[in-house]
Amino acid sequence: MKHFVAVMLAALTAAPAGAAGLPGLNAGVFQSFGTDKYRGTDVYAAASLGDFSAAPEYRRFEETGLNGPRHAASLRLGWDGRWIGTGLSGGFVPRKAGTSAAFAGADIAFTLSPMGEGKIRRIGGPSRGGAPVGKGLARVDFGGGALVTQHKQAATAASAQGKLTQTELNAFVGASFLGVLASARAAKFNYNADLKSAALVVPSAVWTPVAGHLRYANGYADASLNLGVELPFFPMVTPFVGATYTKYKELSAAAGGRPGDTKAYTAGLRVGLEMLAVEAQFQHVNQAGPAKERNYAGIGASLRL
Question: Minimal CB count within 10 Å: which of 58, 64, 124, 169?
Answer without folding.
Answer: 64
